[in-house]
TrEMBL record, chains A, B:
SUPFAM superfamilies: FAD-binding/transporter-associated domain-like, FAD-linked oxidases, C-terminal domain. Belongs to the FAD-binding oxidoreductase/transferase type 4 family. Catalyzes the oxidation of D-2-hydroxyglutarate (D-2-HG) to alpha-ketoglutarate. Also catalyzes the oxidation of other D-2-hydroxyacids, such as D-malate (D-MAL) and D-lactate (D-LAC). Exhibits high activities towards D-2-HG and D-MAL but a very weak activity towards D-LAC. It comes from Caenorhabditis nigoni. The gene is Cni-F54D5.12. This is D-2-hydroxyglutarate dehydrogenase, mitochondrial. The lineage of its organism: Eukaryota, Metazoa, Ecdysozoa, Nematoda, Chromadorea.
Length: 486, 486
């Protein structure tokens, strides 16, 4: 038995500076282990040099340690590695595109990195039922491109689509901008091939490749959002959605947050089956876009809040008519101050550039504290106001953008440089406030290392105990992705 | 520790006649237990007489045994009962509307029936986010009626809607006729309150009441389709969908099954965001409807296959235009022999009456062997042909209807009366054929008692072991819904 991880002290800061101590129950990787890995994977499957891209996250916020990256090419090779590591108590971190924001896919101390980069051969698609089966290492954008030729698309989209992998998307239950239309990945997942970190490296084919199967516990769904704690996903079966023939975008200027919620309610009713995004930007992020990136609002008047609405449908005339009627109703009911319907794809691109550039714009202030939380709508924007008042002049900006249609806010607090005094004001206050107001401290990014100190906030002991018992069934030696989430 | 259940012999027949032996590790309910139950629930919470409706299923196919039905009124009362039963090794069967088709919600030997009928008080709905939170004992139709007043509806619909309860719908991952549009219940579930059958009667609040929450394992989804094996669901949080303002129906006559699949593909592309049903009837069920119920086809020509397509949308003109264009394209591509678009709600009702009366029509032949399986489309109708050839004159009819859009077929084989020779031809052949052809032996009805003898077909030992380990975490004494599913 391994030693139980030491209880992590409650940190002042929500930063990677707080790292759990190494679990001395884990073995260190020795020369004999490297030879064994080469035996399983061949010499080109074991990388010892130039691995910095695999032990550091892309934001540079998380700098981990490690000495080896493994590149299995098949489920069987993953099984061989996990069986070996389990028997030898070697900790392992599975890694997809390494595009996460919470430090979940890099080693903390000296875990072996199990890269999925070479598990990307098998792809099949049933274009009548819309069912995709593919290896876990496929990049999301590649899948989307393959499906586009067949009249379909992936049911979710995110900024990292050019690098993130479908296996990682499943492991993090990736959200993104289309969730209001197509639902979370739970709506689409049908089956998984997973390898367990047990002494046999057990290979499980869970779920099925058909749309309806009520013959067993629906275990594939337990892997959605499991952050590499339970097993390594090597293959995914899921539904895709018909590619829309018409995509319309509109930008609305709104006077109050209350009216933003009324616009959302009307959009869900009027745009019903065609709404595909409902994104939110406040005046402070618009100002930040202007001053830091010289990006100007598409609306002529400056308004306290902006909303970007998108529809996706099969008939352009119908979608334009619905969107126009929706805008007319917003105006006639005095819900909006201004509204523009994109007349061309260039117009639409300008609108989306504002929303998509927001994460970049904030970084130009110097230092940025990013957040990803969910809140009931009545508290959604109150958080911004509370944090503005609390941070005062220590913050350069307190800005908010996000997926309003999903209750997901990306509140960003910037400063000229990292500021401990500001951090002490923010944490744990912000997360405690979110939980006290019925929210979730992680909407779509997960827990990883970043939010581990707060992951028990508002969680009852019974649930925490259940989660640990579940982890123990799948990963009896606790070797998979330690120092994170569970 | 309880004794492990004896291995069930492989039966010749797929009927309730095959019953697992009583597990003698379970205690029998004594007078002292009844007094304890009355102590927890009051006298009116414990029913000992006239309980036949609770120990027999509605089809009369499953006749169980039992002496007491309990009616808790709250999560706390469920907790008190499960803690008591767990400590005293008394087996319990949770029961919702008792509308299932596989004998999953009735006691087999002498299990205590835990009825959810009185847990139906709390109902709340956020009509901006479309999030419903309600007690598990609410009847599906009641919820639908409440939501209709708020402009929303439940995202699934089934024949039993007037009796089935939302807790049971979750426990069976109910499917129905709108799955092609709104997805399975996995697409909608956000949170559950469940009581575990452990010695504390642990109450768990799993998931949350917001749309995005990536802070823990997504355990609520493990209860979807768990058939009362893991815990008792007392409260459900899920999304509802905007109520469509326009519903259009059309009936199509098709020459070959291959063309039915081409029509499906076209419908998914052309009707894309508005398609809400794609139902299938073959000529034999149409003939059965005519001869047994005097229900006549709405198409003038008799065709080998009929398809009922439904759209649900927010704009009647748009939906009519899409449906007309779809029918035109079907005709111009020679995919259909005939097609009728319902011009009124009476027309639509006539079309749906054919589909919805199919389960009744077959019973009029005398005896009916009902099936609910999923298959890849290339094998969907082959099963019907194979069973026709195999059953020959022993069968009165071999008819097929079902949710073609989901790959779900309800193959029904009728006879004048129960026929053992026919049963021996059918079972286990039919289920083995389904599994050998990439299908699932239960699409939406579940395993229960009916399909327990076949539940391991095609399942690998690793998955079966995992399922048992999971069951053991939630139900350490194995008292919940024994002799079924797991």
């Amino acid at each position: 038995m391994l030693k139980i991880l030491p209880k992590i002290r409650r940190p002042v800061r929500c930063l990677s500076a707080v790292v759990a101590a190494r679990n001395e129950g884990f073995a260190k990787v020795m020369q004999s282990d490297l030879l064994a890995f080469e035996n399983f994977l061949g010499k080109d499957g074991v990388q010892k040099d130039d691995i910095s891209n695999h032990i550091t996250d892309w934001t540079g916020q998380f700098k981990g340690h490690g000495s080896v990256v493994l590149y299995p090419k098949s489920t069987e090779e993953v099984s061989a590695i996990l069986a070996y590591c389990s028997r030898n108590k070697i900790a392992v971190v599975p890694q997809g595109g390494n595009t996460g924001l919470v430090g979940g896919s890099i080693p903390v101390h000296d875990e072996v990195v199990l890269s999925m980069n070479k598990i990307n051969k098998q792809f099949s698609f049933d274009d009548t039922m819309g069912i995709l089966q593919c290896d876990a290492g496929f990049i999301l954008e590649e899948l989307d491109n393959k499906l586009a030729k067949l009249g379909y698309m992936m049911p979710f989209d995110l900024g990292a689509k050019g690098s993130c992998q479908i296996g990682g998307n499943v492991a993090t239950c990736a959200g993104g901008i289309r969730l209001i239309r197509y639902g979370s990945l739970h709506a689409h997942l049908l089956g998984l091939t997973v390898v367990l970190p047990d002494e046999q490296g057990s290979v499980l084919h869970l779920g099925s490749s058909i749309r309806k199967d009520n013959t067993s516990l629906h275990t594939p769904h337990l892997f959605l959002g499991s952050e590499g704690q339970l097993g390594v996903i090597t293959s995914v079966t899921m539904t895709a959605v018909p590619k829309p023939r018409s995509v319309q975008s509109a930008m609305l200027g709104v006077e109050s947050f209350k009216k933003c919620c009324e616009v959302l309610k009307l959009a869900k009713s009027s745009l019903s089956e065609v709404i595909s995004s409902f994104e939110f930007l406040d005046a402070d992020i618009m100002e930040c876009l202007k001053s830091n990136l010289d990006l100007h609002p598409v609306l002529s008047k400056s308004t306290p809040f902006s909303i970007l609405v998108e529809t996706s449908g099969s008939n352009e005339d119908h979608d334009m008519e619905k969107m126009s009627a929706f805008l007319d109703e917003c105006l006639s009911k005095n819900l909006i101050l201004d509204g523009v319907l994109a007349g061309s794809s260039a117009d639409a691109a300008n609108m989306w550039k504002l929303r998509e550039s927001a994460p970049l714009a904030v970084t130009r202030d110097g230092y940025v504290y990013k957040h990803d939380v969910s809140l009931p709508l009545e508290n959604y924007y109150e958080l911004t106001n509370v944090m503005k008042a609390r941070c005062g002049d220590l913050a350069k900006r307190v800005v908010t953008y996000g997926h309003l249609g999903d209750g997901n806010t990306h509140l960003n607090i910037t400063a000229g440089k990292r500021c401990e005094e500001l951090e002490e004001l923010m944490y744990p206050f912000l997360y405690e406030w979110v939980v006290a107001h019925g929210g979730s401290i992680s909407a779509e990014h997960g827990i990883g290392q970043l939010k581990l100190p707060y992951s028990n906030l508002g969680k009852e002991s019974e649930e925490r105990l259940l989660t640990k018992k579940l982890k123990n069934i799948f990963d009896p030696n606790g070797i998979l992705n330690p120092y994170k989430m569970i």
